[in-house]
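Predict both folds.
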Amino acid sequence: MPTRSTQSDPGGRRTALLVASAGYFFVLLDVTIVNVALARIGGDLGAPRAEIQWVVDAYAVVLAACMLTAGDLVDLLGSRRLFLAGLGVFGLGSAACALAPGPGSLIAARAVQGLGAAAILPTSLAIVNQLFPGDGERPRAIGVWAGVGGSALVLGPILGGLLIDPFGWRAIFWINVPLALISLGLAFAFIPAGQGTRTRLPDVAGQLLGTGALLALVFALIDGGSGGFGSPVVVIAGASALALGVAFAIVELNSPRPMLDLRWFKRAEFSGANLGAALMNLGTLGALFAISLHLQDGEGLSPLQTGLNLIPLAAPLALLTPLTGRLAAVVGPRRPAGWGLLCCGCGYLGIAADPSRITAPAGWALLALAGVGMAVAVPGLVAGATEALGAERAGIAAAVNNTSRQIGGAIGVALIGGFASISTSLAASGVALVVGGSAALAAMAGGARPIPRRAPRPRRCPDARPR
């Protein structure tokens, strides 16, 4: 919780809010800024398309797999301590990316970045909630946090283009190092220290099995896209993903304190919101990967020109999400989630019919339609997930929804990014979004009712034996 000096110092609280928001900015920046560098990275390091996909997915997979455990560690270690650790790991990972001599070392460094991002994302929001506990001030503070973070979606492609053209692709990683160091110093100075609220360790078995299943699945999709899905390696990877996924489900269902309570997915509203979230990022991040490579390799555009052509897609999401959150509050989450995803899908399907229009006003209009659709859908999907579990589980419901998005994004880059044709990639993205919107409209139709808490399991007395 905030110290007395922090609570009595409005300037200090505002600075702490901006530092926490900067952490969220870093996480989203490295989702978008790398895309405009992919063609240069591939050419400089001699990396084939499959390795380029891993440059994106190493970050996304680790971020998705570790986010729920990071949320548990907030309660164990305290939010500031984990936030500082996340910034340090993110900065070290960024330096390692900038120094990477080859594709393998770059992919490994991107995984380190993802680990830091997984620590930063939940703790940054926890810090905001601690700094502004009042019902009247918290929504405004969260709006600042979301606005600063969302600006990375617009600035990422532009900043990447400005850095890559004169300084090379390594500059997009070097820029993170001083920013992380400055944020570390400000966090030490302005973010109040806090103690963990419990001592129980996270669900290590669930974390390992879930991470292994996701890694095996992404590997199968990437390797299958480049070498064929019938190869022995891909078949083994797919079978491993299935086996690890089943083991994960068994462990979570029998754990007294699971990382992810799978009973929640029995609720159609919760499942629909998370399926829609996963398919949203599957379609949009898969399309972003494909479009970024197409504009540079196919159209011959520079990284800066590529970034400028992506602004119509990113700007609505960054600018409109604070406003569309009010729409979900007024009309309910179902219609914004469903119709937003359908609009987003129609935008990509429109471009898929004639990819040459991407760099023309008609293409920018369709990208803007996709961006507006996302801006409308995101608050609805989060609200749908939180309402399905009730107010007392709003935090974990939002975390699961965010994790679903990251998992979908990792799968989207692996699956859609493997198509050789830009038309096929965009058509697949559009179909995924239309399916997600339809599922949200269908599954989120019912009223949300809180799920009763799982009753604690009775413990047997050590000397209680059958006689």
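Second protein follows, with its predicted structure tokens after the sequence.
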Amino acid sequence: MKLFTNLPGNLRALFGFLRILTLLTAFSWLTGAIFFSPLLGRWLPERNFHITLGDVALKASPDSIRLKADTGNADSLSLHDLRGSLRANFSTRSESLQARLMMSIFPAALVVIITSYLLFTALRNLCAHLEAGQVFTEENLLLVRRVGLILVVSSLANAVLSVWASFLMSTYLHAQAVLGNGLEFAGQVAFELPTGPLSIQTGLIVGCLVLMLTAAFRQGMKLKTENDLTV
């Protein structure tokens, strides 16, 4: 029960910790991705540092599956496509592939790091104001609006970057990947880039709801001002 006696203060400490954790994660990830993974790939070529990028769909030829029983026609069943996870060796010696991987993942990682830091900072400051007894203030209104804008902007940026990453890897695979007989790529590669605490759809919906709540927040501020003037 003591955990909930000072909920704003506990949340302020939590968001402060998450903000520091975001910086540490950003430093370790960027350092490992830029420096250590390529070096380890050269020093330890037998080790593979794979990352899962997303799903890829392959079209199969109509005759890739047939019925052996004599009770049906050979074309009674057909295999339209195959789906699976696309994995890449981040420490690959292929400069073109490594460049595509960096151009696909690096911008999305930066968006996650920046938006997570800004989001945790805004929530930490908001909890600090609530802990001090400051509820209906203009500064809190701006912080709540900032939280909504961060969620909406990050969701839209992640959606654009996901399309961009899919285009980059799809063009690379169509040009460089060698498939077996009867297989071809079906559309673009569906990437699952890092999106931060919330998915793209969830972040967009929650962000819009938070922006809508700012109107109610402003109304509460107006009522508080009128009440103070009446007293």
